[in-house]
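User: Hi! I'm working on a homework problem where we have to compare a predicted structure to a textbook description. Could you give me the structure for the chain below?
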Amino acid sequence: MLPFLGAEFGNPSSPHAWGRRARAALDEAHERIGAAIGAGPREIVITSGGTEALNLALKGAAWAGKARGHRILTTKVEHHAVLHSLQYLEKFGFEVVEIPVDRYGRVDPDDIEAALSERSILVVIGHANNEVGTVQPVAEVVRRVRAHAPKGCLVLVDAVASAPYLKVDVTGLGADLVAIAGHKLEGPKGAGALYVRAGTHILGQQQGGTQERYRRAGTEDVAAALGMAVALELAVAERDATARRLRKARDRLTAALVALDGVESTGHPKDRLPGLVSVIVRDVDGASIVVKLDLEGVAASVGSACTTGSAEPSHVLTAMGYPEDEARGALRFSLGRTTTDEEVDQVVELVPRVVKAACDAAAALAAERAAAAAAAETAARAAEPGSMVRS
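Assistant: Happy to help. Predicted structure tokens:
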């Protein structure tokens, strides 16, 4: 990336030497990203991240297909970049059907098939959930769509969370559109890409120049595109070894947590991302644990990083059937390619102690509140006329 953050400052749309060198580098990024997921360079659109890639795919496909229909299918556990974009499209007359999931966060392909109609134009599904790690039966969903949806109904796969750890082969997935993001690959933030199958028509969502073959106007970030390409290649090359190592680390940390009273693992027990630990700590606000862990130098979250700070419980967990009070006890750890065994050892020793202390504090507070409520009730009864209660 470094040369294109400095001396090689040319605009890739410019005809001079600096621009031509930038164009060559950008073309290289298209080729390397495409090769890593089994696509051609002309099928790759460089974006500013996963959110833009999903917005472009969703809105571009919806408006391109409006003449054929208005029905869009998705699941209740998708990323907010999907769900909020669909809420936006509803304002313009599109019908959005959110398919429920089971206790593990997995959708049943039968339910998607049953929801298809002659007016269906798009099905959107995440390859793996970014909060609980559950892997969806994407290939089977695509097969059902091809067999039962009207011709021209597209399938968009959100592979932002899965690309670092699962094989993202566009031919194997069978999807028409696939979104990925650089930062999930431990590459640069503000970089993303959208695969658009050759012959698939979407309408560009920002107008201006002719960049990205008219699909995404605006001067491309050459350095970010190259950085994402290299990060994706590294992730693919090391994927199997990384997945094996992270599964062991994930299972060790999960076992240490679920051994505590009131802690339950969430997401599918087997078909899940190798580096994601997701649990619910009952009767405790997960945010309070995250703060305590931060003070100890451990980065954790209560769900998606994109919703940190929200007072609402995870929509993923509530869709999986967890009551809101339990969903507020969500706790998530993400292990990555650069996570060391020593770091895992430290966390395995530290986290159960912090969680237990938080549970004990919450229980003590609950007991204090119960005692205060009982005392208040006794005092109120004592104050009633003719009462025999004495404080």
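For your comparison, note the following. The longest strand covers residues 120-126. Residues 2-235 form a domain with the Aspartate Aminotransferase; domain 2 fold (CATH 3.40.640.10). Good luck with the assignment!
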